[in-house]
Specification:
The complex is a heterodimer of chains A (425) and B (329).
Chain A: E1 4-17, E2 20-33, E3 37-41, H1 48-56, E4 63-73, H2 75-81, E5 89-90, E6 93-95, H3 101-107, E7 112-115, H4 119-122, H5 129-145, H6 151-154, H7 159-167, H8 176-188, H9 194-198, H10 207-219, E8 225-229, H11 237-254, E9 257-262, H12 265-271, E10 274-279, E11 282-288, H13 289-293, H14 299-306, H15 330-333, E12 357-358, E13 366-367, H16 371-374, H17 409-412, H18 415-420
Parallel strand pairs in A: 3-9, 3-10, 7-8, 8-9
Antiparallel strand pairs in A: 1-2, 1-4, 4-6, 5-6, 10-11, 11-13, 12-13
Chain B: H1 2-31, H2 36-41, H3 47-56, H4 63-75, H5 89-124, H6 129-143, H7 146-161, H8 173-183, H9 186-223, H10 226-233, H11 238-266, H12 270-275, H13 281-291, H14 294-322, H15 324-328
Helix pairs in contact in B: 1-14, 5-6, 5-9, 5-11, 5-14, 6-9, 7-9, 8-9, 9-11, 11-14, 13-14
Classes of the chains: A alpha/beta (425), B mainly alpha (329).
Amino acid sequence: MTEEILRVEELKTRFFTDEGQVNAVDGVDLSIDRGDTYGIVGESGSGKSVTARSIIDLIEPPGEITDGEIWYREPDLAAAIGDDYPDAIDGDRIDLLRIPPSVRRSLRGSNFSMIFQDPQSSFNPTITVGEQIAEAVEVQRRASANPRSTRARSEQYTLTSMILGSMFSSRRYVSPESRERAIELLELVGIPDPIERADQYPHEYSGGMLQRAMIAQALAGEPDVLIADEPTTALDVTIQAQILDLLDELQAEMGMTILLITHNLGVVARMCNRVGVMYAGEIVERGTLEDVFDDYVHPYTAGLLGSVPDMEGGGGRLQPISGNVPSLLDHEMGDRCHFADRCPKAMEDCLNHPPEYPASGSDHHAVRCVLAETGYNDGRALPDDYFDGTDRPAGDKHVGPDDRDEDSDDERQHPPAETTGGEHQ
Amino acid sequence: MAFGKFLIRRLLQGVFVIWGVVTITFALRALSPGDPVNLIAGQVPDQSTRDQIRQDLGLDQPMYVQYFDYLGNLLTGNLGYSYNQRRAVNDIIAQHFAATVELAVAATIVAVVIAIPLGVVSATRRDQPADYAATFGSLVGISTPNFWLGIMLILIVAMQVGVFPTSGRGIAFHEAMYNLFRYGYVLDLLSWLSYITLPAITLGTYFTALITRLTRSGMIDELGKPYVTATEAKGLPRTLVRYKHVLRNTLIPIITVLGLQLGTLMGGAVITEEVFNWPGLGQMFITSLRNGDWPVVQGIVLFIAVAFVVINILVDALYARLNPQVTDE
């Protein structure tokens, strides 16, 4: 009965900056069922937002999706464009990365929409909230009035349209019907006095109200998938709860699928039934909520859960994860497990990049960590100071730790010296 | 209403600014050397005639009396009389003002029509050939001195090619329009256009370059803001995002610059008017200053100050209309 609506495979999004290539998303796999709430958790800089933006096609240069597949199940669309782009179609699924940008663009709002972290900066400050929501309604209204094949051409909005629109109300982009719908949407998300509110500017709203308005805007095209990028991070705790309740209600009412990006495990526990934990551009552990919260395998997941205050248990000290999020610059990343330098259970095996292993729990539980396969072996542990002083552990790959034994301890303690001191040998 | 209060406050400020300008120019006149009587009477040695003139002009009175007399006359709208033109300053300004306004407005139109589309192209095709061309062009425009440009245009376009007249104004715009609508006479308007083209280009080049750069950098800034991504996520056509959202917000600060610049141009573009022998306020101002014709100098300075203040209030009012956050503060 549950069908997969979105499947992301080996997604790679790179940013080509002056400092070098940044692997913001490095081979992410995801599978989201229709009507589910999928949570992606991770620290800042782990690639959560970039993953979300890759799915809705909001990656701007110097960023680029370099590899991967994003399969989206939408039988109508598959039938409509199947003849034009047979490569991109598999049954009733479409690979979003193999259809042209204009078609992808037409999916925004109607199939995918997104709400952002900071509502205040995500609205245009000089246009009323009602007008901005009405625009989102209008674009869908116009799109559905035209067959898909002619949509791109009918979407022209020129400098002349702008000048005429600012002079004559009849030439405005937004029609009165869309305005009315915008007011209905504001009412739907629980904004009091929606008629007056629609004529106000973003700075006249409170943060919580504006986040509601942004949700209303995202619902304008009745999307299949709503991507919520840290929807509550910028809000007060009490307002956070209200916004989450609202999302819950709307999901129940409209049957949306939600992809929730957050660093807040409390939000995940409350909202999601499936979870992916991201670290350094990869999903390191994924599965059902129970898999990740109770049967976790990856030490990073353990670390994340250990750094959340336990209000009921009390007593014990918080266990922060030592160290920092690693650099995602390609030439600094290396071939090992990216978490190894912060991992309390790092072993020699971790100097090879781990594949994804199935883990105990549900069928969906998968972990990118050797512990899922072999268990922790104290004898093979890396010494605590193994990564000390090595800003760029990428050099390790020449050491070949696999063919070494316990007796080569002294060599392993100075791996950087070995890669750089070629003269003496 | 907040907007009314805002306007009243700005008007009061404007009155003080104008009073300050009047006082300072008056003080400068008092400090400047030269006896106006010489200007009028020339080398007439007759002391009684000279005294008579001095008395007629009120120059025998103490300074403060002269100052308050002048202020009193200003309040009745009388700017005084020219020392050597034998005309009221009001008439002189009225005569030259139209020429200055024509040139200022024409230069502004040239600038806006060229600069804004150029800035938009430059910002949206960043680091592409069109952007490089526009950026280079605006660099050249901003660093070209306009007296040189004016002379070059006269030498090459007017004299060698012979397309436009070299100098002068030909016919006034209002006369040309009158002839057009009254008699259906198009040639006058074309003649007006041929006279104003080169001065307008000369005066507008720097301005065009400046606005191009401002539009480009403002739009690049604006394109990087989070609301642009959020607006794109709604699925709006890209051109709608660019024009209705981004360009509109980019233009808000540019309107301020446009207003200030127009205010400056109202005072007469001295150099351009000299080069093209354009009978505007700037040219009049320089001539009067050279002759020590202080009533005219004072009148023009006052007029420029008023024009500046009025344009600034208009710009602020427009700014408040475009940016809803301003009136609330």
